[in-house]
Amino acid sequence: MDKPAGEALRSPQKYTWGGVMDFLQEQQRTMNERETEWLLEKQELQARSTSLEGELKAQENINRDLLKRIKMLEYALRQERLKYSKGPGEESLPAAVSSASIPTTVANAETMGEIPAPGKEPEVKVAKRRAQRHREMLKK
């Protein structure tokens, strides 16, 4: 067994049927283990992907509902602004509203003479909200 390294490489290896079969069985076993691990990882990733898609869909629904609510509230705010900017007199305001509840901008406009006479329809400038366009959610 004291052969030099070069001589051991030159001598042909002797294979036996039993050794070859053991080697092939070991290779098949390792390949089956790898395939099983790969299938488990694939299932985990698919489950995670499905979960994340569900969360994304839920967030998109919440976003859509909130945008609808914002639009509704902005519309109601514009309507309120129009209602309170009709004119200087109490006759254009609802009976339950007193002059103390008039927004300060309308009250200041009355004293400055910016609101026209009661017979004329005032030009109403309602400030519109400037919003950035939101990027589209991830689309598939």
Please give a handful of descriptors for the protein shown:
140 residues, mainly alpha, 59% helix
Following the backbone from N to C, one meets helices and strands in this order, namely HHH
Shape assignment: rod-shaped
Strand content: under 5%
Number of helices: 3
Main sheet specs? none
Q: What's the helical proportion of residues? A: 55-70%
State the total count of DSSP E strands: 0
Quaternary: single chain
Structural write-up:
- With 140 residues, the chain is an all-alpha fold.
- The chain has a domain of 95 residues.
- 1% of the residues are buried.
- About 16% of the residues have low confidence.
Brief rundown of the structure:
By secondary structure, this protein is mostly helical. It contains three helices and no strands. It has a domain at 18-112.
